[in-house]
Amino acid sequence: MATLEISNLHASVAEEGGETILQGVDLEVKSGEIHALMGPNGSGKSTTAKIIAGHPAYEVTDGEILLHIEEDEFEGIDIDDDQRTWNLLDLEPNERAALGIFLGFQYPAEIEGVTMVNFLRTALNAKLEEREELFEDEEAEEAEADEEDDAGYDTSPMEGNVEEGEVGVAEFQGILQEKMELLDMDESFAQRYLNAGFSGGEKKQNEVLQAAILEPSIAVLDEIDSGLDIDRLQDVSDGINALRDEQGTGILQITHYQRILDYVEPDHVHVMLDGKIAKSGGAELAEKLEDRGYEWVREEAFETA
Ligand code: ADP
Ligand code: MG
Ligand code: MG
Question: Where are the annotated segments for Disordered (predicted)?
Fold first, then answer.
């Protein structure tokens, strides 16, 4: 179990006199939950996503983003406490990813001669390696702080987890096959080259496949529904539901439209306006937005302000 806890998040564009975009975002997403983050264009949804992942274009001016991780998220790693809390704003993007935060990258750089399968294996190994380093660093710091501890104490927090450091080609084939079955995807997909011109819909499916392979505790999916025809929307939605149901991934589903929520039913719906969550509710809130647009939320927010 993991909980992503965003509180009072304020952020602006990271340049002198940069525009303020987020003005106090509060949001909590747990493993296994589906949250829809909705709102008109320009309200700050993508900015929120990018700040969670650690995008350097933004400067956080107030508030915090915490990730609470329970021990079972780290199978094979001996963590002393039953739950650990990480301050994500202190961590690099790859460290956040190693701890289980996923922000899809729909358009992986089109590198000549690299297949999808190699790209995915590299991404997985990068995550595992970063995770190892993260815990090694912690261990080194603790060892320093605890110098008088007896010299015979040598249990590494990573022992028994990824000793080899890498998932090899053969092992990865097995993982890939399992994930592609989970997502009901065609195996030939992974054999294609990154520069082979994936369609818009295929790029979105790719994003779900990345999430399946990396097994994040929280996945942020930004407008994964945009530009999809109804069949692709169904496929991508089935994949998102599988991430939640089979891997216990918590989903922060950013969308402008209610349509995908007919297929991926949210437990919670949040409406972002002017860099803040103006209203939260259940699935019925999304339906109301579909019927009535966003203006009434703004009016209601003004009334109570
Ligand atoms: P949404 O995803 O809800 O449509 P965004 O988070 O992309 O909204 O953008 C919110 C506002 O912040 C917009 O007015 C946008 O122009 C501005 N903005 C976002 N990123 C930057 C940036 N890197 N530089 C300047 N302005 C930005
Ligand atoms: Mg956006
Ligand atoms: Mg333990």
Answer: 134-154
